[in-house]
Amino acid sequence: MHKKKYFILVIPMVVTYLVFFAIDASLASASALAPAGNTTAAKEVQTKYTFIEKWGSFGTGRGQFNRPHDVAFDSTGNVYVSDRDNNRVQKFTPNGTFIKTWGSKGSKDGQFSIPYSLAIDNSDNIYVADRENSRIQKFDNNGNFIAKYGTDGKGDGQFHRPEDVRIESHTGDIYVTDTYNNRIERFDKNFTFITKWGSKGSSNGQFQLPHAIGFDSKGNVYVDELERPGVQVFDSEGKFLRKWGSVGTADGQFSLPQEHLWIDSRDHLYLVDGAPNPRVQIFDPNGNFLGKVGSPCKMSTGEGCIDPDGPGPLSLGDGQFSKPEHVAIDSEGKMYVVDRGNHRIQVFAPVINESTK
After folding, report:
1. How far apart are alpha carbons 97 and 46 in whole angstroms?
2. How many helices (H) and strands (E) does the chain have?
């Protein structure tokens, strides 16, 4: 009788031990699959991309480009491209089907002299950094002129060859990289001047031609420069917080001149490397390298591309770049890269591991 009671008591203890052993083994297995550091397996997977489509070629026709510069999306997913040396903006469906175009060379309302970067507000109005006219122009999503802001100069609300315009989503405030005045200017949604910061130099908070700007989920401002590698980070009032980056070709280093950046909903920063090392690098908010997309390709020379995985040319050059300029992530997580030297747009999809969905 006593032996029977002892046997009954032991069974639950054994079962409990086996359950905890199974759970511990499962956790150990999951830990082994995750990358080192603070990066989760899902995050690691989502920094990998695969080429899915491209559109555009050299020319002045509809859907053709002459050194395209920036790409942006409206609330329905339509794609806008600043066709820099054709002095116009083109509008496409998400898969690259041409919709319309507007603009011509000049200084009148609705004309451009080197249209650089684009920004789109919550009402689908399009802001264009009209660089050589030292102003920002505003249009509706059909290309109808609404307003213009700025004149050439150094005063508040003036610009000298501005190269980027961006809208902070939480406040609607508009930020402009006043590139050749070496400063950042901030405006409210009505384009009333709020503040500015920066001067020419190499100290923290100074600039060597600020080129691109972006915002994380906390409203911090990330700025990269044409003539200095990496990124400087500020709060919304322009207080310097931190910086990172160095010159080189290794992962996490940069070739000069640097190009533009984008920050996604996970606060991952995508930065386009300079022409000598054409690629898009991906970082966390502290500058830790996460991944990269792209390799050199000079399709416009007629010589084809170099296949990084073997000898011989790569005739299509899918996923390869020549002088890439801008990168942007749409609402579905797809990456659009302005392949300026090849006069085309390339689109990449995030690689999702089935086990992490």
Report:
1. 27
2. 2, 26
Are the CB atoms for 166 and 215 separated by under 8 Å?
yes
Q: How many CA atoms lie within 13 A of 223 on its CB side?
A: 36
State which H helix or E strand residue 347 sits in. Answer: strand 344-350
Please tell me the predicted confidence (pLDDT) of residue 205.
Answer: 97
Half-sphere exposure of 6 (CA within 13 A, CB side): 3
Angstrom distance (rounded) from CA 352 to CA 97:
27
Sheet of 269-272, strands arranged across: 261-263, 269-272, 280-283, 289-293
| Beta carbons of 130 and 137 less than 8 angstroms apart | yes
**Nearest C-alpha neighbor of 187 from the set 204, 208, 202, 166:** 166
- CA atoms of 99 and 86, how far apart (whole Å): 17
Q: Which helix (H) or strand (E) holds 244?
A: strand 240-244
User: Taking the model in full, what pTM does it have?
Assistant: 0.83
Which tokens in the block code for residue 7? 């046997």
Asked whether the predicted pLDDT for residue 351 surpasses 50, the reply is: yes
For residue 304, which phi and psi values (nearest 5 degrees)? Answer: 75, -165
Q: Whole-angstrom Cα distance, residue 158 to residue 185? A: 9
